[in-house]
## 1
Amino acid sequence: MTLIKSISGIRGTIGGKPSENLTPIDAVKFAASYGTWLSKKNSGAAVKVVVGRDARISGKMIQELVMNTLVGLGIEVIDLDLSTTPTVEVAVPMEKAHGGIILTASHNPKQWNALKLLNEKGEFLSGDDGAEILDIAERSDFNFSEVDSLGSIKQATHYIDTHIEEVVMLDLVDAEKVAEANFTVAVDGVNSTGGIAVPKLLKRLGVNVIELYCEPTGHFPHNPEPLKEHLTEICKLVKERKADLGIVVDPDVDRLAFISEDGEMFGEEYTLVACADYVLSKTQGNTVSNLSSSRALRDITEKHGGTYKASAVGEVNVVQLMKDTNAVIGGEGNGGIIYPELHYGRDSLVGIALFLTFLAEKKMKVSEIRKSYPSYFMSKNKIELTPELDVDEILREVEKKYSQEEITTIDGVKIDFEDHWVHLRKSNTEPIIRIYTEGKSQEKADEVAHQMISEIKEIANLP
């Protein structure tokens, strides 16, 4: 059982002992820390916070604890109830709220939950802000309101519909063109809130919908991370029902994967590539993804005359670099689309609407669109080290060894070779080095990964 406290929030497994797992006591403590931080930041003025959750089994319990803790601090709570991460992000500025809390453990299994924390823009907190909240929690520096100054809870369960309308109204989303294409789309909502939001969006766009696991029960029918090995059923369904496209989201709807009409994975890395291809064909500009994302986005960006930049891993880092470079679209290779025309957050609903408009305009099969992009293949590995080893020193030795190549050190060590790359990152919680490689064939990516593992073991004197 696990409890992980980080600058982006708190996540852990339900049950067990406080401070070792995500128990009711921990949920109250960290909600109180966040509410206290907001009240201090706003000099004691009336504070408003938007709260929403995915459909996981523990969500209702955690949400009631979090909301009533905020009420105890004199805060007004806007209760979205079942929602999505991007919906909460959209709702925060619409409500003129001071922050937001999303109760979701994203792609983690059902025993996990988390409090993800937003600022007044509906964006994830900076590292400094997150550190302040952790410090307040450590000191239990709370001052709850007296009875006449308690906060309140206001229900606002319309926000998924509002979010969908905001998506449909985007200039680059053409609902009429999508409806004319008469698409049939299969959706795997993994029995969470994607099962509510995605079919609603598709029907609003005039799409014929085949639903798979779209009941928001929180009982995930398969591992909820949208990877090929977990998606055999929808791949089969797309082929059997002759659908034009399959759509898969994770439990909080910020990661998006497509399945081509032939039942093959479009490739999570290529979700962003395709959406960027469409946006850049209409809007001159730059793109951003993180260091562990595919080189294909760089290729597509340069084809359209833009500049590609890579950030450190983490949504907050991607967003900051997007702002710094005026990027017109960005995101992460795990299927996260960030389109600033609506908001600075990963949003599967935006990605779906952009991709369907692109598909309707191109009049091509999904598999044909995929084949039009440069093919890259990834390998993701890790090495477990003994705690006494200095991981930073090992990474410095690797950097020194490859100093003649193009090196980036903003997040571990990334080495860019002419036709492949290697990215080494250390875990913040375990003595582990994560090794990501990409090449023009799976064999090349695997070969480079195995070579790097051997070299690290040699540096660290490991067997």
Note: The chain has three domains: 3-157, 163-371, 377-459.
## 2
Amino acid sequence: MATGGMAAAIALTPVINASVPKDAKTEAKRVVSTKILAEMRSPSSLASLKLPNIETSSWHSSSQSAKKIKSAIKKEVSYTISTKGNVRSNLVEFSKQVSETLNDSRGWSRIGVVFREVTSGGDFDLILSQAELLPTFSSGCDAEWSCRVGKSVIINDNRWSGATTAWNDAGGDMRNYRHMVINHEVGHWLGHGHLNCSGANNPAAVMQQQSIDLQGCAFNPWPLDSELWSTTLGIVL
């Protein structure tokens, strides 16, 4: 009897539903979110916010440093200067103007090369020769023009002192002819062959035979952008 009475009492005990209405939950979430957002926007919160410290990986830093070092290094090419036979031109002036030409920012230095004159053992030999002696270097050389044979870059003294009819008739000046003939013959040593005029009034390639015929091009003593490479030095741009 007592057991039944207790069961009845338990059965009669009201069940209290502790759940919050759905609308009330939604409203509570909205209030909390608004409060958090307001705190995040406050100046004091932003001031205390610390960004993660992202370190550059060592391999990336090394790679970038190597690139900077590589771009700052220029390949050095050495050359000797001498004469052959009776030359009329001043050798001191020749040496000075050769260096100016080879290291001019408009010339072959653009492939990343510094040219340095040495007394012996140069990478190539620059020879100012009596015109009549040019054929003694090779059967392919002519007393009329300058020439290149192996590591010998031979400048015809007549051309150095007077240029050519084609160049003079086109209005070219003496200093630019000297720039051109040095760049042209050294260009052969660098691995270049001859080129033709690309179109009327276009600047001639420095490897065009401008001493002989401009072919409608304008005289130009400096290598074109398309000529900035060297198979001899392994430089391809």
Note: DSSP finds eight helices and five strands in the chain.
